[in-house]
Each structure stands twice: as C-alpha cells, then as structure tokens.
User: Fold these one by one.
Assistant:
Number 1:
Amino acid sequence: MNKTKIAVLISGGGTNLQALIDAQKDGVLRHGRIVLVLSSNSIAYGLKRAVEAGIETAVVTKKQAGSQEAFEQGILEELEKHGIEMIVLAGFMQILSADFVKRYDRRIINVHPSLIPAFCGKGAYGLRVHEMALEYGVKVTGATVHYVNEVPDGGEIIMQKAVSVRKNDTPKILQKRVMAEAEWQILPRAAERVAKRLMAEKNARTRTYRIDNIGGLLAENAYPGRGIVIGESKETGKAVCAYFIMGRSENSRNRVFTLKDGELFTEPFDPSKVKDPSLIIYAALRKFQNRLIVTNGDQTDTIYEFLEKGQGFEQALETRQFEPDEPNFTPRISGMITFGQNQDEPGFAYKMSILKSEDPEGSRCGRYTYSYEPEAGLGHFIHTYECDGNPLPTFAGEPERVAIPEDIDAFTDELWTGLNTDNKISLYVRYTDPATGEYEERLVNKNTK
C-alpha cells in the first residue's frame, strides 16, 4: 500500500506522538506512515520515543535559525528531503506563518486540548487551556483535532471528543484526563482519516487505480472483523465470492461454518458455551433463483424474502440497520451476485452494501450500496471494522479493490494466511461458472473436533 508519508512536529515529551506510534503499530493509522519526527527542541523526550520506534528524527530550533523565515526554511528542507505529504502538530510549541501553512493546505492537522471554539486562539496552549476551563466553570471540556490555517486554532474541525470536568479537578489533573480520554483517542483516528483522503486524492491525480493484494491488506490489519469479497477470476471469468468471520470474545469465537444444501450457516462449535446467539448464528449465504446472497447477519434472510416478493436488494436493506451491539454498532455488510437469465447471458454483475452508524450514539444509520460490472482479476472487499480498537472503529470509505487469482485454492490460502491467527474463526470461498452455474467451494474452520 502506497501510504501517505507523515511528519510529526513536536517540542516536548511526545505523549501524543506516542499515541500515533501505537496507532500505527496497532493498525489504527493504516493509510499513513510516520517517516519523520521533527522537534523544535533538541532535548525533547519525544525524540527518544521516535528513535525507539525506528523513526527518523530531525531538530530545527528557532534560536539556532535566527529568524522565523530561516526556522521555517529549515523545517521545509527536512520535509522535502523525506517526501512528506502530511504534517501532524503534536505539542509543537511554535506558530507557523501563513505562507508555510498555505504550502500544506489541508495537509496539516493539530490537536488542541479544548472543544474549539472554547478556550483557544492566541495564548491558549498547554496547561493554560485547562486553567481557563476551570476558571470559567464549565462542566464539560475535551479535545479537538483540526486543520491548521493562518488563524491560531481557526482551521476546520475534523474531530472532537468531550470529557467531563470533575468537582476536585486541578489544571494538571484535568490535563491528564483530557489527554488520556480525548487527545490520544481522536488524534490517531483523525490522522488516519486525513491520510486516507490524501492517499485517495493522490491516486486520483495520477489516475492509478490500484489493485491490492488482499493477503497484504489482511496482514496489516489485526481485526477487520467480518469480510466479504466479490469479483471475477483472472482467466476463466468465474464469479468469486468469499466470506470470513473473526472474533475477540469467547462467545464470538465459539463458531464454525457449516454447509447445508449449498447454503452457508454459522453455528456454535460448542452449544453448551453459547451466551447470546442473536448476532452470531445466522444464514451467511443463500441462493434465490439467479442470485447469490452473502451477508454478515440475518439480513441474508431479509434480502431473500424481499426477492421472493419481487422486490430488490436495496429495498430489503432499507428495512434494516447496523447491529445493536453498543458501543461498536457493528455494520451490516451484504453482497449479491446476479447471474445472467439464460445461456445467452452467461455473465454476472454484483452489488455490495454497508449499513453503519453515522454517530457515536448510534442514532442515525447510513446506507451505502455499490454496483459493479465484473472485470477479470478484480474484486471488491468490504469489512466491518477499520482495525482493532475499543470501541471498534467502523469501516470507512468504498470497498477496497483487490486482486482475484484464477486458482480457488491459492485464493483460499491467501485469505486464511493473511487473517490474524488469534482472531480468525472461519472462511468460505466459492467460484461459480456463470454459464453453467456449477461451482467449487472451500470451507476452513479454526475450530475442529
């Protein structure tokens, strides 16, 4: 994956830097890579954090530079040397000029320890922000990640998180809680959001429509959750469908895939250990006439029932929403392959859908459907979570483009090997000849007797 190259600018201890380093290691920061940590202070502890993480460092101080212009020129030289595409200000105690900021328009982000527009702007930094909050008597404060422009703390807000103010808080106590409960949580997520946007924009500019190796994508992600892949085999034009499940809890891991009359079901491996079957036991794949339906939940049956009534895929999913497993609000992902009606139309087309929460409270459901004409060797991959986390971050963006090989065994092995060993549970792969309807299938269960 051609990740967005990130520089993190610091001046001190680098606790926010550490949150970014941890996020990169854990797969939260997935579309960006920290390639440089630059400090305005030669003895900043954050430099040691970077070295321990194997990240290159640089020091540019205003005192040694002698002027703001020379200081910024020194920074620019380091950024250009490392091919930096995105900048994260993480406790960087220097103001950058309007000219500098314009060079990286919508490519510089900053984390501020308040809910902007409260307690921000000139003079509002560090401990002083929390002193201001306590002096004002607010009951709620928090942190904000925003784009940087020529106005201090005046750029577009990317993400915010609230933190309660407690009766006996001091500025230092409040500062620590805001960092732990807000800054370290939202900065990596916001950085990932911007890095992903920049990567997509770069690909669009160069018109490179990348096709990823799905094994590599999975190897970089400890917990994509449940995933669906649909596409066309490289040489013979077979319709390819794959579905996998993962789990972190004992209840989720107590599952296997079973086949009954050409349909796929999840069932408990040990029925005596089932705690809640509602979201883990369902028909995952069913066939109705010339359509093959695959989903991560009981919406498989909903789609089937709507097709029986002469209605469509989208109409069925309009009646459903994400799963009610607060705070994760796991998305419902679905796919459907439609084969030609007769021998004169042996091809196929496919759709994919995701129903996901649009806010942390689960009060709004977003419904997104993608329709595709097949292309040899190309598939689309959608999964429930961006990566591991608590709560689990919902999948963002469009289905990812992945390579589909001709050989079913090679593809099955690539998927199963790529999935995290600790979290993978079951995998099903099906290659269908659209002209005859004949198919090959492979089923892998981690739990075996």
Number 2:
Amino acid sequence: MKSLMNTAVGLSMTVATATTAFAEGHATELTIAIVNNGHMINMQTVAEAYTAETGVTLNWVSLEEGVLREQVTSDTATGGGQYDIINIGMQEAPIWGAAGWIEPLEFGADYDVDDMLPAMRNGLSADGTLYAAPFYGESSMVMYRKDLTDAAGVSIADNDSWDNVMAAAAAMHDPDNGVYGACLRGKPGWGDNMAFVTTVVNSFGGAWFDAEMRPTLDSDEWKAAINFYVELLGTYGPPGSEGNSFNEILALYNEGKCGLWIDATIAASFLEVDGVAYAQSPNAGNPVGANWLWAWAMAVPAGTDTADEAKAFIEWATSKAYIEAVGNHPDFGWGSVPTGTRASTYAIPEFQAAAPFAAAELAAIESAAPEATDIKPYVGVQFASIPEFPEVGTAVAQEIAAALSGAKSVDEALEAAQSAADSIMSEAGYY
C-alpha cells in the first residue's frame, strides 16, 4: 500500500502530530467505536496506511446503529473510558460538547475548516466551537427505479406530493415477482424508523413539541402522517418492514426488490442496481423539514489519556486528504468517497463523473432546515436537540412499529406515545 505521505497532499501535518504524540511516550493504541455503515467499514482498510506511517494501532468496534448509540452514550456519560474515538451525530454533539462530555476540536490550517459545509459545521458545534468532525454527512431523498416507473407509466418529481408517491409505489408493486413498491424504515429507534417518520410528520405540518415543549403526538397532523405511513409501507412494502432499517433496505434494494426508497442520501454511494434516479423529498403541503439533516461524526470523549492521538486521527480521517485517499484507493474509487461534508468534494471532476447522485445530494443537504420555526419550536429536523429526545424518541418508536406491524391501531399507538412522551418531559421539568 502507498505511504500516506504519497497518498494525498496535506496529510503530513496530521501524521506529524500523531508521530510526535507517539514519540512523547503517549499510548499508541486507539479504540474506535463506529457505526456499521459502508463508509465506516471502508475506513478500516484505508486506515491501514495510517498505522503503517504513524505506528498508532487502531482497534475497531463496529456496532449496529441502535446498539452504538446505547453503548457510546452510556460510556461517555459515565466517563467509562472504553473508547478513545466515538461516532456520534448532530443530536448529541452540541449537547455533549456544552456538557463537557467530549473534547473541543481544533485543527491545523491545512485542514481548511472553512471548506466544511456550513450545515455540517453548525450542526456539530456549540457556541461556535466544533465538538465533532463529520466523517460523512447526509440529508434524505427519494431513490427510485426509473426503469420500473417508466414501465408502469408513472413518474416521481422533486418535492412531489405524498399522494403521487403512493400512486407510484402502487404502480411498481409486484410482490409475485419479488418487487415491492416502497422500502422504508420500520425498525424502532429514534434514529431508525423515527428519522424517516419525523420527516413525514414535518411534511404534514406536525412537530414533536409545541412552544411550551409539550408533546403533540395526539395532534391531527401526527394522526394523518402516521396513518399515511402505515398505509404506504404496510400495503406496498416488503413483509416484516418493522424490522428494516438502513442496512436491511440497502440489501433489498441491491437485490432489485424495491421500487422506491426514501432515506439517507449517502445510500446512493452503495446502490448497485441500474436505472436509479433521484428526487427531492415529497411533502403534504409543508416542505420545511421534509428532508432530514445528519452527520456521522467523530468525537473524543473527555478525559481520555489519548486525546492528542485521537484528535490527530480524526484530523486525518475527516480531511481532504482522506477523501483523495479513498478516491485513489484500488479497492474503492471516487464513487465510494464519504460525501456531504466538504464543498471541495463536489468540485472534484473524478467524483462528479463517478457520482450521478452528487447534485441531488448537495441540493438536499443545502435545503434541510434544522432551525426552529413557528411550527417546530426547537433545533433539529428529524430530532429535537434536547437531552431528553433519545428517551422520548425511543419510546415513541416502539409504538409506531407496533402500529406498522398491526399490533396496535394508529390511534392506540399515538395515545400510548403521547402518554410516554408527556411523562418523560414532565419529569424532566419542562412543565
């Protein structure tokens, strides 16, 4: 494998930082907790060159999304010290940074922090201080089989109506031949089914909380959105959708079993079927919040005795140099680089040629609206940026999955969800 010094321009400063820490007698072993998504898995291969150049041993702990969140939250909150670097996202980073749970990040001039897309930098900062560096960023969009829509005589437009999306799913639905009209998240979790479900609720004009931060899960907007979601996925989705999240649906899509999928823009990097087209997320009259905003980012838990080495690794793994290293790697290439973090990535000719989804992805990220509004009086698109949200979101996720599976009616599920959320928010002292 090529030396890191020859793989990409600008890496020398990062490598020098890590090597200096090594020379000063600090630990040369880092344990890194990552989500088991494709770009993170690829990093383990690319980072072999980092170890070869610096002598820093990297121990990878790859976990399913929900398990990662539970373990990382527990370990970081208690100062357990199990990990030196952790994958977290926009929900956690500002809150944990302000609480002192994770270290602030400051990198050298060659890192070019101003190249970071503003949505990503802002979403991972608190009071102007960056607490997590984005490894890849995403919004959400429609990914559909244009060969199937053409054959069925239907189309999907940017910011289409949900009714038209339902009609397209119905037209493509052919379960006898192993094709399902719509593959959507159903697996319970605040970052699993609720990531997609919340964008549907937003698009129907709903929100998690009102201006007094009281839950609004029993509102007409939530009822309309969840009834629509259950009908769409229950009628035109694959069996067992209540167990499907990102990785499960990606596998189904690549097996040719999905007509359309509305999910993270980053999924487009891993689609292997022909004829895929892209559209901006649909809505039911309210486009604000109809597409989410997220980054899987890297942070350093406070108090670790490997902070210098950890920050040096993060500086490398989220740099322009890393993107070039993946693009030029014989096992990956420009269609596999982590996207959604830097403006410069979208200007690379090789990336543009290899990534037909690039323009749609960037448009989705730039149109995402995490700011508080009159309808949504909190920061966040598919989550609320408050410490209690993971508990609220997890409780509600179970109820929505029960409605999808038919174990409860939509009204029963939302009544239970409202009660659980109200109890959590009241106990937390919001009212």
Number 3:
Amino acid sequence: MKNALHARTRRALLCGTTAAIAASASPAAFAAEVGDVTLSWGGYIKLDTLYSHFSDGPVVQGTGRDAYIPNQIPVVGGAAADSHTYLDFHAKETRLFLKADTAVEGHKLGGYLEMDFIVAQGTGNESVTNAYNPGLRRAYITFDNWLLGQDWSTFQNMGAIPEVLDFIAFPTDGTVFSRQPMIRYTAGPFVFALENPETTVATNGGGPSYANTDDSNLLPDFVARYNFKAGASDFTIAGLVRELVDKGQVGGVSDKAVGYGASFSGKLPLGASKNDLRFMLNGGDGIGRYLALNTVGDAVIDDRGDLDTLRIFSGYLALRHPWDDKTRSSLGVSYLSADTDNGDLAAGATEKVKSTFVNLLYSPVTKLTVGAELRYAQRETVVSDKGDLMRLQFSAKYSF
C-alpha cells in the first residue's frame, strides 16, 4: 500500500511544472520504470532526397545542400555566373533522445538528452560508408521550475513551428534559431533565462561570414518571455538584452556594445476549419546571432575601429491546411532585411533574404510521414547582387 501511494505521488509530481519547463521535449514512444526513475526514449529515422539548383555557382557537399542555409546561396556579381544542380540523399537528420524523471523528497527532478547525425558531421563522406558522427543537440536538467543545461533559446517559440521537411524546421530566414546552455526559470506564463553569450563580428570590409570573437563576454544574454492565449490562439512575446564584446581577435580592435531585440510569434486556428496560421516577427540591433542562422551577424568593425551593431528585421507567415485525416499541406513566406548600408561590409555580405515554400505530406499510418516540398530562396548582397536557390525535397520519416 505504501509503495503504491509513493508511486501515485511521484507520478503526480512528475506531471506538474517540469512538463511546463520542458514542453519542447520530444514526445516519447517508449517508457519504463527503473527504480524511482521513469525513463522514456524515442526519436525518428528520416531519409531526405534533395534536388538543389543554385543560380550563381557551386556549393560543396555539406550543410548548405542538406538544409536551407541562406548564407550558403552563392552570389556572383558582375560577370554571368554558372548555375549548378545537385542530387543528394542523406539520413543524417535521424534523431534519438532519452528522458529521465523522478520525484525526490517532494521535488521534481529530470534530465533530457538529444542527438542527431547532422549537426556534427565530422569527416563523413559519400564515397563508401556515408558514416556521420552523432552530435549533441540538447542536454539539460530540470528541477521543479528550473532548467539548467542546453536547450532551445528562450527567445525562440517552438509552438510556432510550421510543418516542413527541411531540417531547420522553420522558414529559416524569418526565424529565431539557437540552441545553447542556459539557466532558465519558469513562473506560470513568465519565463526568464540567462543564456550563453557569444558575439559574432565581421571585420571592416568583411563578410558575408561573421566570425566568433575570443569569448570575452563576461555577462550572460538575458531573455524574458511571456506566453499567453487569446481564445484558441497561442502567442509569445520575448525580449533579449546582451553585451557584445570584441577584444581585438576580429579586426584588430577592442570595443563593447549593447544588443537588444524582441520577438512576437504565435499560432492561430482559423475558424471552424482545421486550418491554422503560424507566424513570427523579429527585430533588433546587435542580435544577428539569434536570427536566420547568423546570416547577418551581431556587428561589424566600422572605419573608426568601433563595433557597429547591425539592425535586423525578419519574419515568416505559414498556413497549414489538412486535406483529410492523413494528408495536409503548408504554405509559407519568409523574409529578412538588415541595415548594412554603412559601407563597412564587403560587397558579398548579405543584406536581404527571402524565401517561400509549399509542401504536401501524407501519413498512411500515425507514425509514418512521406512528402514532397518545393522551396525557392533568394539572397541579396549589400551591392544588390542576387543569387537564387530552387530546391525540391522528398522525405520519409518514421517516428518512434
């Protein structure tokens, strides 16, 4: 009787605020009781086939052909460029996770570990074995309302994700996207976090790449977030304040600046239909590392040798429409624009990116999804040169 009461009490505790903190954890397919610990595990296996056409030059085999990475769209100014088309097969997105929960002395204690084979590809190649290294995605501890470890940034709303086949799982150019170590506290609809600082800076006359500085940040990035509902709709407002530091590793100068930004996102059911609209709007100064995979970095070294923060606005809009119980489509548009008209960046640095996608997904059974997705994207540099990507992707995914 005592053991049964203890088990019921522990299960009740585990259904409390820990679930709210780790709401973005993957749904578990398997679970087992090991002593006082509930272990759950799962993941998915995914095959991707991608036809990619780049208008302005070649792209080496890697992340730029595995997923939509805006800064890896080649742009050649002036002379006519040679287009390149590629066919790629890969199963690198395959993902595994392990979750542990227990109740200890009236507290909820848990842990989560997740990995895939695309974030840390290592020396894998397509010559013989197509073998790729597992890479850490998320690893955190939960204790009551606290989360300590690596997770999606608190600045990012996972509840606004459109259903897409691309690995990034967002309309890349319009989204907040970051996973990093943090200390997070959740109090009802309010969430506060101190997150790992890192500054990305382009040298004077440099770009489109934005290099990391020498890790001289002494203050964590601070994020505050508020989640709320309006009828059946879910919304999130988040704000970010951070210190930017360059100690001379990029551009040969030392300087500090302040970065700040905000994000508003949500998911809106559309009337009595099963359609829904998902969106995200972002803006700020010196927050480029958090937006569109660092497409436009945090700052650039200006002609005076100071850190000049880059102002960015981005967003996306995606409509999801179920055709029947097994078939659905999503259609989306995405956009990013940066204030880079200061002459401090090289001609190849990114100023604007836009993209659109449409897909058709079919699940013959609950845990299996096959589908096709068409994506068009364009990158524009600070001197108005443009390069395009047209991609057709086919995928099969078994979640377990």
